[in-house]
Specification:
four-stranded mixed β-sheet, four-stranded antiparallel β-sheet, mainly beta
Length: 219
């Protein structure tokens, strides 16, 4: 009984150009492509660097939607876009990266024993997701983020727990440094712990457990 099976070849190609807002090409920019469907076999991250003309090329991509990130050397975060790569042929995706600015800050008060981190949530372009960059708070209570010019929501939280957090909105401009201060108070643990089991009693790893208030809000 002959059986014919059609397999989608990982032969997709994505190329493009990365430039500044002035149109000048950007060299040595790291471009990463991550398949949106992470449970598909062979969905490893693929990356390339731009050449002197700002050109990059990614070969051997699995067909389907991709999340593509372009990031300058030394930057905490970059610009993310989405693209759908076909089984054959060439797909194109260009990036325009803003100049970099710096956010420097200090966390005052008692520091959490598990450590603190600051997440920067950038506003995305219309139809494109925003990017997220993270930086650790040092034992001395300082942090530093190098970000493309944009408006960001900075969120301070413990690395192990995000039930308590603070946030500020900052505007980052090219070539400038923004100073940010947070005040943090150590809080007693307020955890909800348990075990999720399958019907046969075996552990269920990776289960999603939502926790809501009495009115069904505040997940």
């Amino acid at each position: 009984f002959p059986v014919e099976v059609a397999l989608a070849r990982a032969g997709g190609v994505l190329e493009g150009r990365v430039s500044e807002s002035t149109g000048a090409p950007l060299a040595n920019v790291r471009v990463e492509a991550i398949p949106v469907l992470q449970d598909v076999p062979g969905t490893a991250l693929t990356e390339a660097r731009t050449d002197a003309e700002g050109h990059y090329r990614l070969d051997g991509l699995a067909p389907g939607p991709l999340s593509v990130l372009a990031r300058r050397e030394g930057a905490t975060m970059g610009v993310r876009q989405s693209v759908d790569v076909g089984e054959e042929g060439l797909s194109r995706l260009d990036f325009t990266l803003e100049g970099l600015g710096t956010v420097e800050g200090r966390v005052r008060g008692a520091l959490a024993a598990s450590g603190l981190e600051v997440a920067a949530h950038g506003r995305g372009r219309p139809g494109q997701p925003g990017s997220i960059g993270r930086g650790l708070v040092s034992p001395e209570g300082t942090f530093r983020l190098v970000l493309p010019a944009n408006t960001y929501t900075l969120m301070l939280s413990e690395r192990e727990h995000v039930s308590a957090w603070q946030q500020q909105v900052v505007s980052v401009e090219e070539g400038r440094t923004v100073q940010v201060d947070f005040s943090w108070e150590e809080r007693p643990p307020n955890d909800c712990r348990g075990v999720v089991l399958e019907p046969d009693g075996t552990p269920s790893p990776g289960a999603f457990v939502p926790l809501l208030d009495a009115e069904g809000r505040g997940m």
